[in-house]
Protein FAR1-RELATED SEQUENCE 2-like (Nicotiana tabacum), 434 residues
Amino acid sequence: MENEIIIPVEDQQIESLDTIEGRKRKAKGKAKESPSIILKENASLDDVKLGSVFQDKNAMIRYFCLAAIKEHFEFYVKRSSNTRYSLVCADEKCGWTVRGSRIKKSTLFKIVKFQRAHECSVDIRKLHQRQATSNVIRDYMIDNLRDIATEVKPKFVISEMKRAHGIDVGYGKAWHAIQKGLSLLRGTTEQNYEQMASYLYMIEQKNPGSYTNIQRDAENRFVYMFFMYGASISGWKYCRPLIVVDGTFLKNKYRGVLLVVVTKDANNQIFPIAYGVADSENNESYEWYFRELKKGIGIRKDLIFLSDRHKAIANGIANIFPECYHGICIYHLEKNLKQRRVRNTVLSLFKSAARVYLQSEFDDFMFQIAAVDKKTFNYLMEEPPGRWARSHCPRRRYDMLTTNIVESMNNVLRRARELPLLTMMDFIQEKLQS
């Protein structure tokens, strides 16, 4: 072919058909990868594609555990290291598999292999899902645990997992899931005690005029705690000079008691004054508590304390506030009479005697009690009438013959008493501000 023109071409410019096809396959593979958007743990299984990214390895683990529960399948970990995480279906004949790899030196994990289709039989699926660990159940139930007013019990977790996913969860696993969730939201009890001093310091910094204190033993272990907000200190001087005291049990891990003092303002509304935490209601704890209370509010003229008949309270008031008068709650005295099986007619006479204003009327009612039940009369007179009868009280009780106002405060804090200390204190602060 004499007329054919041959054009020389450099060797490096020549590409074989196999090379071109290889580039096309590589480009096609990249096109299948999803954009590098970090997936959330509650994302749908359909959102996972080749190239999907998780915040870290733990996020990837939790995601596929939740996905396995929702989609009713099980998997085994084929390989797990700091840089790789591979899963395969529990059925050896099934081709479902996923592999994640860490992106360079970051904590991000990227899906580099994902076979979505399941070929396993439904016969291998069990009601006791192996991926339903206490940590996974915790993550699933975490939103139900956020509200302090709602108590989540293991029975609710068991029924919820059965209803939502059709799997059986044991009582112990459900309980551990709840405890782990509460620790995640509110911190452990030990962490709360460790941070107590810092928390009290911040109360004084963020609430000017507040007074707090914490008592430790020789080994630097927690013993007592006291806190009183600046608003309570400044408002106390405008309230009635009557303080109602009570202690209520805490129900957290290390128990103890919450000590509370309240009063009434000029508008006849309950006015909280101070709070404290101690190991129990004993002479030492109440003396320390009243000593801190005295530092916070000082002494007012004609001040009177009101409480139940707890001896530790009486001893603490006598030692720290000797110039103040101490009255007792007639409701608690009435309960003591009921325990002694006193007749209703005598109980009615007792309540009338306690509430009248004139001593002559008091004497009339007590004379009737003596005529009907001499033993009850003697029992009542063992306690000086000035401590429980309005007509004999040397100071004004402002129509407060019971400790109902502090019992009302204890009722408000009923659920909070089950919380770790710092969460309980947050709850108290929210109530004071609401």
